[in-house]
Amino acid sequence: MTAADSLLSLVGGTPLVRLGRTAPEAEVHAKLEYLNPGGSVKDRAALAMVLDAEESGALPPGGTIVEGTSGNTGLGLAQVAAARGYSSLFVLPDKTAVEKLDALRAYGAEIVLTPAGLPREHPDHVVAYAARLAKETDGGWLADQYGNPANPDVHRRTTGPEIWEATAGRVTHLVSTIGTGGTITGTGEYLREVSGGRVQVVGADPETSLFSGGDGSPFAVEAAGHYWHPQTVDVGYPEVYRPDVVDRVLPIGDRESILTARALARTEGLLVGGSSGTAAAAALRVAREAGPDAVVVAILPDSGRAYLSKYHSEQWLRRQGFLDDDRPGTLASLVSTVVSVPVGTSVGEARMVLESSGHSALPVVLAGRSDRFPPAAGEVLALLLPDDLRGSPDAAVPVPAAPPVGIGTGETAAEALARLDPGVSVVHLVRDARLAGVVSVGALSRL
Ligand SMILES: Cc1ncc(COP(=O)(O)O)c(C=O)c1O
């Protein structure tokens, strides 16, 4: 052992560990990016972007690092700022979990909140707001992880060579999630080059994300994938992402991602986040298809510590309907065909749909684009009751003001009833964080 001069010299150099219990017949390795000092793969990009800006003079001594991020890039940048004597200023959506805000503040960062759910073109969207603040702040510099070439470049110089060395050049497949695309682009470029094109580069993507050909509607796994806000016009890929480096992108459903993350903790002792579950699930699929000679490496971006109240909480999993098969008496049997009408449907039409469906309520969804529960900001998902359909048949269906109430397929009727407010008469049934039925409270109490 030697003593490090700076915490920052400990960024990178993360180990590979074989998933021997999960895939005993195959050779699947996980690269443990949560062992970086700031807890994620983004330590690499954060440090590289700052060093690059110091060299070019874009970030003056004692200046302020600015970025719009609610996640790991913020933590990585806040860490570098503290260790190298800069101020840091982050713009975050106002819905960001208080633990994340506190973690950034713990490093001494300043936080500015902006409304969540704004389309990318809005001047107060996190990215646009951060760019403006960087310009207005004396000595301010915008890190710009989505457009900064230092982001993919650090993976070309470090992550790629580390994988090549750790597998003694035997790696056949790289599996990585895609957020900014920095990790997969840089690591993939290096491994393709050094192997003479032999290494296959596979993206692992939330099922509805745009990278794997989804419709861009919301997904539960955080920090990976490309979501399309309904009012966003420009849905282009991030500047640093190079799709030509990627051989194929596998869509992985939220349930598979989340339950894989949960299984990694229980069978391998690896407590990782949701996007790590996405990467591991894709890697296991690749290994099954490629056969016994494949050497598959999956990059696991961060730790499960930040998600203890979500992916690693049985209560959350049951209420979102991700865990519904392991107990008697859960509401999974109530999953039914969901009929819904888009916002703007006429009352007359909605009434006909309601009558022919046999349901006592109709979900209203925005243009039918997403049935995710709870709806993302900017999307409407509400229950329409018969009383709401009394008006003129030509009028548009009213959008009820009250937020919809959901119960998970992993709950029992007694558990669900115990947490419902007395005034609620009809609820959404939720499976895989998506609408899976409509149930009256009366029917629930008779179960
Ligand atoms: C948890 C997690 N997973 C995946 C990613 C995607 O990595 P990249 O931005 O390099 O594509 C990120 C990026 O912030 C992340 O924080």
UniProtKB/TrEMBL annotation:
Domain Tryptophan synthase beta chain-like PALP, first and last residues per copy: 10-302
Keyword list, A-Z: Pyridoxal phosphate
UniProt-listed Pfam families: PALP (PF00291)
Entries under InterPro entries matching the protein: Cys_Synth/Cystath_Beta-Synth, P-phosphate_BS, TrpB-like_PALP, TrpB-like_PALP_sf
CDD domains: CBS_like
Gene3D superfamilies per the UniProt record, alphabetical: 3.40.50.1100
Keyword Transport found: no
Domain of life where this protein originates: Bacteria
Obligatory cofactor(s): pyridoxal 5'-phosphate
Protein name: Pyridoxal-phosphate dependent enzyme
Organism of this sequence: Actinomycetospora endophytica
